[in-house]
Specification:
The protein has one domain (15-126). The model has no long low-confidence stretch (mean pLDDT 87). The chain is an all-alpha fold. 71% of the residues lie in helices and 0% in strands. It has helices at 2-36, 38-48, 56-81, 87-100, 104-113, 119-126. The protein is globular.
Length: 147
C-alpha cells in the first residue's frame, strides 16, 4: 500500500511538471511568431486594445490569435482546476488573463466567440475584474507623461 501511495505521488508530480512544460511550450508557440513578425505583432497589439483601425483581413488574423491565446489560458485554467497546476503558478496565468481578458479587443472578441470555450472557463473569464493598471504587450511601453 505504501508503494502504491508513493507511485501515485510520483505520478502527480510528473503530471504537474509535464503539464507545466506543455503550457510553457504552447506559450512560446504563441509568442514567438509575435516576436518574429512585426506585422503580426502589430495586429495583436492593436486588436487587443480595440482594433478599430484594423482592416477586415487583419481582424480575421486577430480572431485567430485571440482564439489561440484564449485556448492557451483555458488549458492553464483546466490544469489549475484539475489540481495539476499549483496556486502559485496559476497566479501568473490568472494575472495575464486579468490584463488581456479585460481589454477592449478581447471584450469584443469574447462577446462573439465565448461559445468556443468550456462553461467553467466562461464563468472564470466573465468573473474577471480589470487590474488596477491593465497592461498588455500593446500598452507596456506607452508613457503616461508627455516627453
Amino acid at each position: 500500500m505504501l508503494y502504491l501511495a508513493g507511485q501515485v505521488r510520483h505520478g502527480s508530480r510528473v503530471a504537474r511538471v509535464t503539464g507545466g512544460e506543455t503550457l510553457a511550450a504552447n506559450l512560446r508557440g504563441f509568442t514567438q511568431p509575435l516576436a518574429q513578425d512585426a506585422e503580426l505583432n502589430r495586429i495583436w497589439n492593436i486588436g487587443i486594445e480595440g482594433g478599430s483601425e484594423l482592416t477586415q483581413s487583419e481582424r480575421s488574423r486577430f480572431l485567430h490569435l485571440a482564439t489561440q491565446f484564449g485556448k492557451l489560458i483555458e488549458s492553464a485554467h483546466l490544469y489549475h482546476t484539475s489540481g495539476i497546476m499549483d496556486d502559485g503558478t496559476w497566479s501568473g496565468w490568472q494575472a495575464a488573463a486579468g490584463h488581456y481578458f479585460t481589454s477592449p479587443g478581447w471584450s469584443e472578441y469574447w462577446a462573439k466567440r465565448s461559445d468556443l470555450y468550456s462553461p467553467a472557463f466562461r464563468t472564470f473569464v466573465d468573473g474577471l475584474s480589470p487590474p488596477e493598471q491593465r497592461i498588455t504587450s500593446g500598452t507596456l511601453w506607452v508613457s503616461d507623461s508627455a516627453d
